[in-house]
Each structure stands twice: as structure tokens, then as C-alpha cells.
Amino acid sequence: MLRKALLAIVALVALAGCTPAPRLSDAPVSSPAQKPVDTGEVVVGVDSIAGGYNPHNFADQSAITTALSTLLLPSVFRPGPDGTPQLDRTLMTSAGVTKSAPYTVTYQIRADASWSDAAPVAAEDFVYLREQLTSQAGVVDAAGYRLIEDINARDAGKTVEVVFSKPYPGWRQLFTGLLPAHLLKDAPGGYAGALQNNFPATAGPYAVKTLDDDRGEVVLERNDRYWGEPATLDRIVLRRAEQAGLVDALDAGHDQMALVRTDSVGAKLLGELAPAVTTSTVARPSVTTVLLRPSSTQLADLPVRQALMALLDRAKLITVGTGNGPSAALRADAQVLAPTAPGYQPTMPGDLTYDPALAETLLTGAGYVRTAAGWTRDGRPLRLVIGAAEERPVDERIAREVQRQLAAAGVSAEVTLFDGAALYSPAADDAPDVVVVSRPAGGDPATMLASDFGCVSTSAGLTPANPVGYCDTGVQPTVDAALTGSLSVSDALVSVEPALWRAAVSLPLYQQADVLAVRKEVAGVSSGVGFTGPFAGAAFWTRTS
User: Fold this and answer.
1) Is 63 in contact with 218 (CB distance < 8 Å)?
2) What are the DSSP E strand ranges found in 231-271?
């Protein structure tokens, strides 16, 4: 046996000796060719590109709507370096008050300002926007437009005279995000369908090449018809991704930027990409708010609304909504102004806390009796519908937490998801009693106060003209005085804020915020002035190789 093994080893050695040695070559070793860097393109990772994209609708408020409307739609004024409105001279040659009685503002549009289909930006765009914002439900900052009595045009629509019923110091915030009236006024679906899935025409430094929600991608290309200074980049791509994929894409350089609403885990992962990636917090012009509608039959009684407020654990709702991400640091403790707005001061009463015992006392005083099935009055149960927008998963999570907290105290409630403007119409037959909304909070303070909590005069007297369904005839004179400038906003808020808290119609939670992440090869990016966001300067972004 041993002899056979030795013979086998000898045979293997002999065979190895017969194998020729490998040949050496002096040829250089080549690596695969790298794809050239396209310095004319920047890819921005986002968490959603879902529409609609109408900046004037409550339902459409989002980071993507702000980004697209900033780049694609013309505005008479835009925030200047200090945040105050400055005339956009790429669209306008002048705008100012030209008559005090009646109060008249005259706008002069540049002769070369046009939409991407070559139609001129003109007076009809002003008329269309005013008509829609005074007739549609669920629109943003409508109070200023309701003061307009007439709009007159001259010089082929390039001179626009706007006549107001009363003085309006906030007029510079009007006619932001003009819409192409020549395409929308006769379009199927009208205003309700405007900008739901695309932009029929644009009038900015970029135009839409592709907007594909299924693929999760928006491609913007330099607008060759733009009459102003051309954009530096050839294209900007907005690409949707889940949190893990977005972080990986930034790390690998497939994405050069990201703008995402994230929790503490996501913010930490993005921060760990330093120094190749810098991160900052960008506050949105939106405050997540729980509305208790007094227009609802179930919530018409003040003690009942106050009881529900006492049953809500606000700190828990904020945690559920923010995930302890950047928004958690922006707790909204005032009714009108957002935490990052100039002049913001907390106004929330110290005694507005989670207090189930107080809630029980209030409900009992309102005639309700606690039974094994819950709270009832005159044999009818206290049963509520909590509404949230179906396209806003964070709002849905908050709504379900509200439902859980109320159920723990014996208040029956169900969560219903709504689509679009239906959620913001308190007079509708199926309107929910309690609503979780993103309340726009980036406009003129007096206009926001009047739009969100004010009344309008009708043949039936003062009626609500806001998504809350709230109208206080005692507060309305102060609201009107602030809107028309006879009382400063700060003085008005001194009396109005306590009244809104006592009315128990709105529980602000937090101002929404995103994380802005930028790789070092992209320059010119900032968080924006005021509430414009980083895309306000996108026409001047640059990318190096």
C-alpha cells in the first residue's frame, strides 16, 4: 500500500515538470472605461412625486409642489434676500399702488414674458386666478383675492389694473404661481383638474420633459423659450426612492442631492455620509394641524370640542407624526404663525394639557352620559369621523392615533381617507368632524388669519369661509382690521390668538421640515429665503466632475 502511494507521488511530480511555465506579457492591464460625468445634470432624490401640483390648493401642499411651482410658474413677487417680497423683474417691469380711492394696484408685465407654448403671460392669467380662488373650496390664502372688485386690462393684456373694495397692504403676495388661463379655462375638469398630473404650460427657466408617477421620476429641462437668463444646468431630475435606496444613491454618487421628509433614523443615516455630503434642515411653509369643526353637528357645542382637546395627548401626536425627525424641533405653539416665521411667539395656554378628568367633567356638563358602549346624549352616541388625505400617510398615522386616544376615553370614532378638495369643504354632506391637515403657513400673516379663521358676509349674515368651518362674529372686526391695515397684525394676534385657543377648533402640532442633503460636487444650493425652499435658486446650481 505504501509503495503504491509513493509511486503515485512520483508520477504527479513528473507530470508537473512537464507542464510549461506560464508566459509573461508586457501588455498593460486596462480597467473598464468609466462613464463620463454629465455636469449638466443634477439628480435629486425625493420621498414622493405624487400630485397634484397646484400651489393654490390645500390638498396639493407638499415639497414637490413648492419645488415645481417655483421653477415652472411665473410670480409677480418673490421673497428677496431678507424674506420680504421683491418684484420679479424677469416677469414684471413694475407694480405699485396707483390710486387710493378706489384702492388700485397697476401691474406692468414684460412684453416678452410668455408661456412655453408661446402664448403671452397676460391679464387673463390674473383674472383666471382671482376667479378660481374666490369660487373654489379648499384654496390657499383666498382672503386677499376676495377684496378684488375688478380687473381691467390695457396694452394687449400687458397692463393690468386691479381694483380693491378696501385697502390691502398684503397685495404683494397676490398673483404668485400664475396659471395658464388660455389652456385651463376650457379644459376638461376645469380648475379641479388643473395641474393634477402635469403642467400644460410653463413660464420659468425650466420646462417639464417627463412627469411619470409610476416610474417615480420628474425630468425638467432648460426652457428654450424662457426670455430671461438661461438656467446653468441642462436638466434636473427628481427621483423617488425609499429611505435606504436614497441614502445608497447619495453615497454612490448616483444622486447628487436629496430633499426628504424623514424620521430620526433617516436623518442619522444621511448625516453619516459626511464629509462627501452636507445636510441641513429646510422648514416647509406647512403646519400639521388637527381641526375640530364647529360646523359639525357632533362638535357644535364648545364644551364638547374642549373635552376632545383635553383627551388628545399632543406630545404623542407630534412623536407619531415626526418620528423624532427634524420636524420635532419645530413644535407649533401658535395658531397663525409657523415657528420659523418672522414675529412668531408661542401663545398656547399653559393649561391646555392632556386631562381626561377635565374631559369627563366637560362631557357630563354638556349632557353626555358614559355607558359601557361609550358616551351618549339623549340616547344618541358621540360618534365621530376623523378625516385625512389618502395621499398623506403621515396624516393618516396621526388620524389613527387620534382615533386610538379618543377610543381609550370612550369616544367612538372611525378614520376615513379623502381625496383632494373634499377634505377641505366643511359644508359638504360627508364632511368629517375632525380633520388632520397640512395648513399652509408661508403667506402674509393678516391674509392667513382671514383665510384660515375668517368669515364672509352673505345674505344670511356672516358665514365661515375657511376649511375649519369656524366664524366668530366677535373676532371678525379685528380680523378685518388686520387684513385692511387699520390694525397691525401683531396687535390683532394679541386678542385673536387667545380667542382661537378658547374656541377649541384647531390644535397645531408641528411645522413640517425636510432634510436637504447635497454632495460636494454641486454648488450654489441653499435652503432658500423665507419659505421658498432650495429650488428657488435651482437655475443657478452648478455641478463639477
Assistant:
1) no
2) 235-240, 257-260
pTM exceeding 0.85: yes
User: What is the reported pLDDT for 498?
Assistant: 98
C-alpha cell, 185: 379655462
Distance CA 517, CA 273 (A): 9
Question: What tens digit of pLDDT does each residue of 322-345 get?
Answer: 999 999 999 999 999 999 999 999
Closest to 43 (Cα-Cα) out of 241, 264, 280? 241
| Other residues' Cβ atoms within 10 Å of the Cβ of residue 22 | 6
Measured from the Cβ of residue 268, the count of other Cβ atoms closer than 10 Å reads 11
Residue for grid cell 423683474 = 89
pLDDT at 178 over 80: yes
**Cβ-based burial of 68 (10 A; exposed 0-12, middle 13-18, buried ≥19):** buried
Establish how many alpha carbons lie within 13 A of residue 209's alpha carbon, considering only the half-sphere containing its beta carbon.
Answer: 14
Angle between helices 243-252 and 264-271 (to 10 degrees): 10
Nearest to 418 by CA among 426, 408, 406: 426
Task: Kindly state the percentage of the chain with pLDDT values over 70.
Answer: 93
- How do beta strands 383-389 and 506-519 pair? unpaired
Q: What percent of the chain has pLDDT over 90?
A: 83
Question: Which residue carries 416647509 as its cell?
Answer: 284
Query: In this structure, what C-alpha cell is assigned to residue 329?
Result: 424641533
Could you tell me the CA-to-CA distances from 100 to 76, 150, 379 in Å, in that order? Answer: 21, 15, 59
467 CB-side CA count, 13 A: 31
- CA 295 from chain centre, in angstroms, equals 26
Q: Which H helix or E strand runs over 359?
A: helix 356-365
Average pLDDT over residues 491-496: 97
**Residue 168: C-alpha distances to residues 396, 430, 456, 485 (Å):** 37, 35, 16, 7
User: How many other C-beta atoms are found inside a 10 Å radius of the C-beta of residue 407?
Assistant: 14
pLDDT score of 230 more than 50: yes
Cα angle 336, 338, 340; round to 5: 150
Question: Would you tell me how many other CB atoms lie within 10 Å of the CB of residue 100?
Answer: 8
8 A C-beta contact, residue 249 and residue 489: no
